[in-house]
Amino acid sequence: MRRLRGGAAVAVVLVGAVAGCTVETDGTGTAGPGRTASGGAALAAAESLPVKGRAPRTGYDRDRFGSPWADTDSNDCGTRDDILKRDLEKVRFTDGTCKVSYGVLASDPYSGKEVTYRRGSSQVDIDHVVALSDAWQKGAKYWDAGKRIALANDPLNLLAVDASTNRSKGDGDTATWLPPNKAYRCAYVAAQVAVKKKYELWVTAAEKSAMEKVLSGCPDQRLPTGGNPTKAPERFHAD
Hints:
Elements: E1 2-4, E2 8-10, H1 15-18, H2 42-48, H3 79-87, E3 89-94, E4 99-105, E5 115-118, E6 124-128, H4 132-136, H5 145-152, E7 158-162, H6 163-167, H7 185-198, H8 205-216
Antiparallel strand pairs: 1-2, 3-4, 4-5, 6-7
Helix pairs in contact: 2-7, 2-8
């Protein structure tokens, strides 16, 4: 087996994966951003997203999406470590097989370069593919806490990436930011579409146009699927 960036582990023979015949997950039954998955094409899904104006950022706070990296899938590991285990290679742990202490992002999806992760001095971020602030302005403001917590911890919306490249993204959407690594742009936009479709978020007219422009260049791009339920367990709370 060979691991591709974007959290995907696929067979060396790619024909089956492209056809949607073989989908591998992170071991928890979830698919990460950019994974090949069965279902409708990403372009068709993008075309189906509702269009509205961006709502004011007023009231946004990270705490409205719960404590960072909550164990919403109840596997006794925080979400951050779950994604590090899924996306890094040569992983080492501290105290068991949960807390990741070291790993290598062999080909960062955003920059294309190799990045080393060391706990405490990390050059790796876990990015929300659809930024939480962006989600807030496009529907999440009106959700209950359980749905916001689910979005913040859903593996479908999370990706280990180069920290310095990720900081340039901010809370940008497809209309304002794309990965410098052009080879990953189709998968990246498909992941944003998948998350917005799953969580019933809207897009702006400029954002939808940008999504369609990117995906028109890869009309066979499939839509990632999987992840966690869209409501976190009742034991989790947000301010």
